[in-house]
Amino acid sequence: MLSKQQRRAALKLTRHETRQMLWELRQKHDMSLEDLSLRARIPEWKLDYLICGKNKIDVDYLIQLAAFFDKRVKIELVDYLPAKDKNKE
User: Fold this and answer.
1) Per-residue pLDDT at 82 exceeds 70
2) Which of 21, 41, 70, 72 is the most buried (most CB within 10 A)?
3) How far, in whole angstroms, is CA 73 from its chain's centroid?
4) Cβ pair 51, 16 in contact under 8 A
């Protein structure tokens, strides 16, 4: 089981990676937050929190935004710590 510090680090990494992917999608489509807000029908302040903010990621808006970009949200549980190679010691 992860320590409290490790859980916080894992959550921070997950948020960072999610925001990075959303930022890259927005840049790829050459859209400002205002344009994206109007076209995706998501309040601009919510987009700012979702893509740039440090608050929790609202999954409903994340799914709505993913659908706008013809994407889907896939949740996958992966090992936090790299698996140890039994052949190396």
Assistant:
1) no
2) 21
3) 10
4) no
The answer for 41, left when phi > 0, alpha when psi is -120 to 50, beta otherwise, is left
| Domain at 22, CATH number | 1.10.260
pTM summary value: 0.79
Q: Which of 41, 45, 86, 44 is nearest to 63 (CA)?
A: 41
Q: Which of 22, 25, 45, 19 is nearest to 34 (CA)?
A: 45
Cβ-based neighbours of 6, under 8 Å, separated by 6 or more: 80
Q: Which amino acid is at 49?
A: Y
pLDDT for 89: 44
Read off the pLDDT band of 54 (50, 70, 90): confident
